[in-house]
Amino acid sequence: MNIKKIVLAFCITVCSLQPSLIQAQYNWKYKIENGKAITEVPQRPEGQESALNLSAPKMKVVRVAFVGLGMRGHDAVERWTHIPGIQVVALCDYERNRAERCQDYLRKASMPAAAIYSGEDGYKDLCKRKDIDLVYIAPDWKHHFLVAHEAMINGKHVAIEVPGAMNLSEIWQLIDLSEKKRLHCFMLENCCYDFFELNALNMAQKNVFGEILYVQGAYRHDLTQYWNEYWKKDAQDKLGWRLDYNKNFRGDVYATHGLGPIAQVLDIHRGDKMKTLVAMDTKSVNGKMHVKQMTGEECKEFRNGDQTTTLISTEKGKIIEIHHNVMTPQPYNRMYQLTGTKGFANKYPFEGFALSSDEMKKSGVMPSSDDISGHSYLSKADADALIKKYESPIVTKYEKQAKEVGGHGGMDFIMDSRLVYCLQNGLPLDIDVYDLAEWCCLAELGAISMDNGNIPVEVPDFTRGQWNKTKGYHHAYANAVDEEKAAADAMAFTIKLKEKGKKYWEELDKSKKKK
């Protein structure tokens, strides 16, 4: 092989291993056939296996590192100190003082201090450590993939704040890393762990609503009062990362809160799959206004519309409707509506169920009256009786402590606890890399649809042919004996860790007094 061929081969190899640049967005190849856009689906590399139902060896202790300690990350550190069988090994943020402040949570919990990393590349040094099992990733969106890629290349499981990936290039790279390295790639979609969603999912799985045909989800949240709070890198950064991202990229860039819980109800890639989507948006009015207010200059182009709506059909003949609007005045709304052949569930604008008296009786719940129809919401007494019978076992187990610890009303703590539970018991996680792919792909696929006159776009099969292999979505549980042993091991470790931590902080205080 001559020198030119050697150099070319080297360049191809290096480029294939590098994470996509922060600026490289929405550049995935697609073609239009018969009025439909079809994106390229890369073949699974030889010797690489599916990550469906992926499990890892049991961990007596989950050694975790946190990257990104701003709006969401610092709260996560505090929550984790309430979970037995974990150790916070390292803390990292671009700004060192934010990482240092999180040591206070460890001190309060009598846990030893963690190693501190900071700066633009601090996460890279952190990911090289050998004593980390899981990297918990919560910086700005543009760094979610970069940190996850670095962690997985270095053999770490990852838990990524939403959205876990911003484009199809990042999505496919995370899929390949999870499959090749046999590593969990968990997206921290807390709305899947809200009490109403968990209970409604359990009802749907028990056929209370019949066959679910049509679902709705959304992220409708006026962020006007928050735009100036998002992290800014320097004095030249007037917008902050989130408004800047909406300015530059079109599509539903934050679909996961609305899509995640309803995708689980529909068994997406566990018996059904998203097939085709069509996206539409309004013009930008308030988006441009916010840019002008924050920069003092007229905004001539703002890519994302004030309202984006995406319709998705599934292989089994279901319809999904997803909304994104962070620009206009309105009450917070994730919708979460399930329309079934026998009943209906709705979380926003208020929680409720609609079932007939006969369907309630078939579900094992005695109605307060025999003339209840699905035309109206159930009374509070009837709804409470339904919830009592079909309360999710996850809610039963974690609700009390979750409400005490907090995190969006407790759902964050349930999410973290379930993640640790599955790792400690060697179980498949509740959310896998294909969920991440499906819930994040609406951004680039929606842009393709809208940039081509709102044409249909084929949703790729991220499982590459195995979407119907698993029959039905479910949460994994260990048997009673294994679960009890894992819990006992976790508690025993935490007791010793707290003894060690107490001594650490006492000695540190003594050394400071001597100085």
UniProtKB/TrEMBL annotation:
Record-annotated Glycosyl hydrolase 109 C-terminal domain positions: 199-349
Signal peptide: none
Entry cofactors: NAD(+)
Keywords recorded for this protein, A-Z: Glycosidase, Hydrolase, NAD
Keyword Oxidoreductase annotated: no
Ranges where the Gfo/Idh/MocA-like oxidoreductase N-terminal domain occurs: 62-185
InterPro entries in the record: Gfo/Idh/MocA-like_OxRdtase_N, Gfo/Idh/MocA_oxidrdct_glycsds, Glyco_hydro_109_C, NAD(P)-bd_dom_sf
Pfam family, one: GFO_IDH_MocA
Single GO molecular function: hydrolase activity, acting on glycosyl bonds
Database matches in SUPFAM superfamilies: Glyceraldehyde-3-phosphate dehydrogenase-like, C-terminal domain, NAD(P)-binding Rossmann-fold domains
Domain of life: Bacteria
PANTHER family for the chain: BCDNA.GH03377, GLYCOSYL HYDROLASE FAMILY 109 PROTEIN
Similarity-based family: Belongs to the Gfo/Idh/MocA family. Glycosyl hydrolase 109 subfamily.
The name this protein goes by in its record: Glycosyl hydrolase family 109 protein 5
Species name: Prevotella histicola F0411
Upper classification of the organism: Bacteria, Pseudomonadati, Bacteroidota, Bacteroidia, Bacteroidales
